[in-house]
């Protein structure tokens, strides 16, 4: 009887464990041995849920865990926790790993899955590694932050607490909301001229105005130069070129970069963002038996035609399913993304899909751009909220290029209409005929997305 093939997975979260689980469904232990290494203390968890755990909206940490290490092992996956891959020998088909006791050894593989994720951007500033400065990317990071907040609460002490968030992207605004809900005074420092660089400036301005109305001090054009510490070495203030902001806790919301140091040192191909390059099957380019997915890879943007780093759990799980299917003897591909994302800060919902104006211009597209203001429900229905929709359409063809939405309750998920239209290659004229659900509690007679499509179609015809 032939020996079982050996599948080694580096990373025990979305991509890695989805790949392991899918491969195990297709091949039993007698055909495929599966060994996975996770350097952290948790497996298969929702990193996207961490801000809501910090805020208290999600009361229990374990609610974010989809499958524990014990559950994976019971399904035939040898998952080894707190074990880090430190070197990759492609020619020898082996990985050097370090276990919790510090012992290092080589592990051979027939099929290798790189699911190393991403790491928070941490610029080389004075004090950036001080106690009280946190990146929030893993469940371990979230636990460390919450443990720190518990230590800040001293019986009979000053109840005033100040949080400074550096960066006003997705994680920045979500963490700002988390600290507001915990009763902190919150300052967000953003070096750009508007928050949310994933939006065009005019839509980012709406987010800025809303954050200020929520008593979140949002300082724009603020380049951080230093994290100032006390005598014990704990962060006490964040310094910019123009001012100093007292802080009991500092959170870095500067985005993430692919965690591909291991791949880089092994000579595997990386794109402009530092993410691994793969083919449609999620196989690393130039390799027959090395696969990669999730936050450590670049993917094709179907609208621009260019590769892009898109660190989202939705894609990471799909990548894992595709990798597992291919290793398990099936067939699956990942065609690309249209760049859909949704978030919120307090009651303001923020969404986008497709291209921003700058992105469209960068790839040589000419386009019309329109913005409409409407309501989330019929104007006369109780509880209706404002919504702004921005839409980009290609000159002449009228092809939809992108949509951005900023609004209150029931605004954000409308972006999914546009995401489907982008995948289908629809024009804005075609979108105006979409048969969307209508009733006064859910939408005006003309849904805001359709109002924007009508205006965009008119702009294309006029142009």
UniProtKB/TrEMBL annotation:
SUPFAM superfamilies associated with the record: FAD/NAD(P)-binding domain, FAD/NAD-linked reductases, dimerisation (C-terminal) domain
Name used for this protein in its record: FAD-dependent oxidoreductase
Family membership noted in the UniProt record: Belongs to the class-III pyridine nucleotide-disulfide oxidoreductase family.
UniProt keyword list: FAD, Flavoprotein, Oxidoreductase, Redox-active center
Entries under Gene3D superfamilies matching the protein: FAD/NAD(P)-binding domain (3.50.50.60)
UniProt organism field: Streptomyces oryzae
Cofactor: FAD
Taxon lineage: Bacteria, Bacillati, Actinomycetota, Actinomycetes, Kitasatosporales
PANTHER family, per the entry: NAD(P)H SULFUR OXIDOREDUCTASE (COA-DEPENDENT), PYRIDINE NUCLEOTIDE-DISULFIDE OXIDOREDUCTASE DOMAIN-CONTAINING
Residue span(s) of domain Pyridine nucleotide-disulphide oxidoreductase dimerisation: 343-445
Stretches assigned to the FAD/NAD(P)-binding domain: 6-310
